[in-house]
Specification:
Order of helices and strands: EHEEHEEHEEEEHEEEEHHHHEE
Helix content: 25-40%
Distance between the termini: 42 Å
Shape: globular
Number of helices: 8
Largest sheet: 3 strands, antiparallel
Strand content: 15-25%
Structural class: alpha+beta
Length: 264
């Protein structure tokens, strides 16, 4: 679980942080929240859909059809797609809104393992106690993303109000069994094409029409999940083979370092 701590001079003046190398923290996230500003970059990369929470829909990128899996992240944490969603690029920073406050505050996930002592990474504050430029840049990025998230949700709400969201019938192969995927939704293209002009204009003005067509177009990327699943299996087999080879070397009293085999 994330351990979010508000970034204050009192708590972080003598601390620093290391930039993440890869995205292993999201290796089990089979859906990722997205915003409209990145739709054009997401459509050619990953299938998009909707999930429902307490009667309200949210638009997401689908990174796997099985829970607890992210096919876009390799075993070493590399992102295998061409575009990295904004939801991942702010980590380990996050905006959080305390229950007793109107404004959000910038927090750091101390469970990330990226918090270090001053001088060992990027500083949170300068000598005057002012946030460093790196922290300011991250805050600006997260604030822009959050503002666009509000716009995105308005568009999703409009699509929902127009009756354009329907369950997405999907299946996934689990061994020799075919299992239905539940909880994912898509745009009802038939209902969209049947809308009257006034409703279409209203959706267009809220950006909801573009969002709906983006979801429909992105459904072609379901094949990407199949290809990534095969690629992941191949990478895991290669890693297992390499580990087996190393174990054999060690069994013969040999070691391998930097591509050189040495007697130990």
């Amino acid at each position: 679980m994330p351990q979010l701590t508000a970034i204050t001079p009192q708590r972080f003046a003598n601390k620093a942080w290391k930039r993440q190398s890869g995205y292993p923290f999201a290796a089990q996230a089979n859906i990722l929240p997205i915003v409209m500003a990145e739709l054009a970059k997401l459509v050619p990369v990953v299938p998009l859909g909707f999930v429902q929470t307490e009667g309200r829909f949210q638009m997401v990128a689908i990174t796997a059809l099985q829970p607890g899996m992210n096919l876009f992240i390799a075993h070493d944490g590399r992102w295998l797609g061409g575009y990295v969603p904004a939801a991942l690029r702010g980590y380990p920073f996050q905006l959080a809104k305390p229950q007793d406050q109107e404004a959000s505050i910038l927090c750091f996930d101390e469970s990330s393992g990226l918090l270090v002592e001053a001088g060992q990474g990027e500083a949170f504050f300068d000598e005057a106690g002012t946030p460093s430029q790196a922290v300011k840049d991250i805050l600006d990025f997260l604030a822009q993303t959050e503002r666009n998230r509000v716009v995105t949700q308005t568009a999703v709400d409009a699509v929902q109000a127009a009756g354009l969201i329907q369950p997405w019938p999907l299946n996934v192969q689990n061994g020799d069994k075919t299992v239905a995927v539940e909880g994912l939704y898509r745009i009802d293209e038939t209902a969209l094409n049947a809308l009257d002009a006034a409703t279409l204009h209203g959706l267009r003005d809220k950006g909801a029409l573009a969002l709906a067509y983006a979801q429909l177009l992105s459904m072609n990327q379901l094949s990407v999940l199949e290809k990534l699943s095969l690629a992941q299996a191949q990478m895991q087999a290669q890693a297992a083979s390499a580990a087996q080879g190393l174990a054999m070397l060690q069994g013969f009293g040999l070691s391998q370092d930097d591509g050189i085999i040495r007697f130990s």
